[in-house]
TrEMBL record:
A GO-annotated cellular component: cytosol
Enzyme Commission number(s) from the entry: 2.3.3.16
Species name: Cribrihabitans marinus
Record pathway: Carbohydrate metabolism; tricarboxylic acid cycle; isocitrate from oxaloacetate: step 1/2
Signal peptide coordinates: none
Source lineage: Bacteria, Pseudomonadati, Pseudomonadota, Alphaproteobacteria, Rhodobacterales
Similarity field: Belongs to the citrate synthase family.
Protein name: citrate synthase (unknown stereospecificity)
Length: 258
């Protein structure tokens, strides 16, 4: 039996008929006493959050729930809903759009912040090394839609500053983020403000979440918007809606007919 019972090993949950515990805490003691954000933390990390830490994590999750049908993940979920599939399928369609390019900048920004935090070289050299490895786009800065600035980032950074003043976090990743922002502005001779990915990455780094968890947490947050849009589209109806109205056609650049 040990070969069978040890096939899967987990420190997250233990249960038997009539008993469920999460990291040693009975589920009935968690229900009604622990917030959903605190439960997320408890599931992915063994250390329970302090009240200020949970509030900061919640702020990051609230900020990233949605960015409208222009976001590929939201558009895909809405198109999927018009194909007659269920909400869970539509949600999975949208979530599966989240990867390195769409949805991955938060993880990449945390990795960049960590590199800057541990580097023995000046920040400018850290950025040059990053650009040499990953290309010219620095994750977490600038936005193709929100110009001159992403309205979510300053609010999140303000909350980090307040949390640091209260001892909830030490604020060093907020300083690193701002230093990178200043260095980019110096190089380009114009502001390139921190965006939502850079600001939530500051929070995830301040709270001690590993970079891959930054992406997972973003997916949790964005799944709320994906659910909302899939449900709204289901209520609106429509069948087999593509990315553009039927009267518009794509550009054909193949060989001529005949």
């Amino acid at each position: 039996m040990s070969d069978v019972s040890d096939w899967w090993r987990t420190a997250i949950i233990d249960m038997e008929p009539g008993r469920i515990t999460f990291r040693g805490r009975p589920v009935q003691e968690l229900i009604g006493n622990v917030s959903f954000v605190e439960m997320i933390w408890l599931m992915v990390r063994p250390d329970p959050p302090a009240a200020g830490q949970a509030a900061l994590l919640e702020a990051a999750l609230v900020a990233a729930v949605d960015h409208g049908p222009q976001a590929p993940s939201i558009a895909a979920a809405r198109m999927a809903a018009t194909c007659g599939i269920g909400l869970n399928n539509a949600m999975a369609t949208g979530l599966n759009m989240l990867g390195d390019v769409h949805g991955g900048a938060g993880q990449q920004a945390v990795e960049l912040y960590h590199r800057a935090d541990t580097a023995e070289t000046p920040l400018g050299e850290v950025l040059e090394d990053w650009i040499a490895e990953h290309g010219p786009i620095l994750p977490g800065f600038g936005h193709r839609f929100h110009m001159p600035a992403d309205p979510r980032a300053p609010r999140l950074l303000d909350l980090v500053d307040r949390a640091a003043a209260q001892g909830v976090c030490d604020g060093r990743f907020a300083r690193i983020g701002r230093d990178i922002e200043a260095e980019i502005a110096r190089r380009k001779a114009r502001p390139v403000p921190m965006n939502i990915d850079g600001a939530t990455a500051v929070i995830f780094a301040e709270l001690g979440f590993a970079p891959p968890l930054a992406r997972g947490l973003f997916c949790l947050s964005r799944s709320v918007g994906i659910l909302a849009h899939a449900w709204e589209q289901t209520q609106q109806g429509g069948r087999n809606k593509g990315p553009t109205p039927p009267g518009y056609r794509w550009t054909y650049d193949g060989p001529p007919e005949g």
